[in-house]
Amino acid sequence: MLAYEAAELFGFIADQIEVLLRTHCPDQLSVSENVAILSLGLTFSFPVYQTAVNSGILLRWTKGFDIPSVVGQDVCELLQHEIALRRLPVKVTALVNDAAGTIMSRAYSLPLGETRTSIGTIFGTGTNGVYLEKLSEITKPLDGQFDGSSGKMFVSIEWGSFDNELSVLPNTEYDIEVNQFSLNPGDQMFEKRVSGMFLGELLRTILAKLQNDPAVRLFDGIDANLRLTTGDQMPLHTRWAVDSSILSIAELDETDDLETLRQKIFDALGVPSSRIRIEDAQVVKIIAHAIGKRAARLGGMALGAVVTKTEQLGSVGSLRQDECSPGLSEEYDTTKRPLTYHQPCLVDVGVDGSVIEFYPRFELYMREALRAVDGIGTAGEGLIRMGLAKDGSSVGAAIIALTAGVISRL
Fold first, then answer.
1. How far is the CA of 139 from the CAs of 65, 131, 136, 145, 156, in angstroms?
2. Less packed terminus of the chain by CB within 10 Å, N or C?
3. How confident is residue 190, by pLDDT bands cut at 50, 70 and 90?
4. Average pLDDT over residues 133-152
5. Is the pLDDT of residue 177 over 80?
């Protein structure tokens, strides 16, 4: 989203709140003074400097958003201002990172006897992780008021911007081009290799280059100036026109003729069906698999770093083999979503986002990376349970808003 004024975004959100109330809670719009004020949790998946449960200063935009006037402002105040203009009986009581919401949603859904969720991850349009840290391990100054009685605090890692200097992340000519034409060149370099917003564009960039390469002539070297019947340029040659769903189709299609993938190439890339040979579809499948697997393994690396930092696995090496869950292997159906079976675990991870939910085997490839992390290995990987918290960021925000509203009235 590109805009000049904060009201364009926060006014839109407030308008949707009003539509919701008029549709489902019309009595809440009564002029009566006895109308209860509703608590609202704002899921805001961008880096903020948060000093209170209902206050946060935007540090920078990510994921294709760019509204310069909002940077440096309190996003809760901006939304509350638009709500007040519409005279809605709603108060923003919680500002919630999407990964933090995922933790809350996942923990809320687990039986009381289960290992409590301590890590939340997002693998969707963007990517991030939140984990429960000891206050004694947080070295940066903590401004604002907070309850330190538990001795712990949730920390938003903002790992989408990990290694912006590219000292360890893989960097191909195609990564360089995707970064160059993004809204934030040089920033969110980890996210640009993992999240759904960029995976489709990365695939498109590679395929466009191969199509123009005379040694390859992908899609029979189709003319880059060829237009669709609508007169529009082919998505294959249009930046940011291809989403990541084509990667999921490529991973799933195991047929000899790759008919489903060839149809998706026609639909998503605009390549005429007469130019899509089986060999072309095989090339797309191989490249899409490499992009998806790299993304998942990088995601597994990030999760593994958090697990080792928190030392939740303890001395895994002291466990007998029969005490360890076998972890995830090919025998489990991982083509649709993260595991839902209950396994013994020491670490429970809430996950959400379209990539980990819909990209086949994403968790499987993440677990391959976990097993390669020193201090985790096969035994440790088997003690890490991932559970899908469907729409966890929204559900978690509602839970936090409710809790914050109750605490404020005590």
1. 31, 16, 8, 17, 14
2. C
3. very high
4. 89
5. yes
DSSP state of 72: T
Distance in angstroms (rounded) separating the CA atoms of residues 175 and 186: 11
Q: Which residues contact 24 (CB under 8 A, 6 or more apart)?
A: none
- The Cβ of residue 51 has, within 10 Å, a number of other Cβ atoms equal to 14
Distance CA 29, CA 20 (A): 11
Q: Which residues, including other chains, have CB under 8 Å from residue 98's CB and lie 6 or more apart?
A: 43, 44, 45, 122, 128, 352, 392, 393
H or E, element range at 38: strand 38-43
Specify which residues 354 forms β-bridges with: none
| Calpha distance 118→132 (Å, rounded) | 5
User: CA–CA separation, 190 vs 299, rounded Å?
Assistant: 9
Dihedral sign computed on CA atoms, order 205, 216, 246, 254: negative
For the chain, the average pLDDT equals 89
Instruction: Name the pairing type of β-strands 117-123 and 347-352.
Output: parallel
Q: What confidence tens digit (pLDDT) does each residue in 253-305 have?
A: 999 999 999 999 999 999 999 999 999 999 999 999 999 999 999 999 999 99
d(CA 376, CA 216): 42
N-to-C CA span, the chain: 39
Instruction: Provide the pairing of β-strand 90-96 with 38-43.
Output: parallel
Q: How far is CA 35 from CA 22, 25, 28, 38, in A?
A: 14, 11, 6, 9
Residue 307, Cα to own-chain centre: how many angstroms?
18
**What tokens were used for 44?**
């805001």
For the chain, what is the largest distance between any 2 Cα atoms, rounded to a whole number of angstroms?
Answer: 75
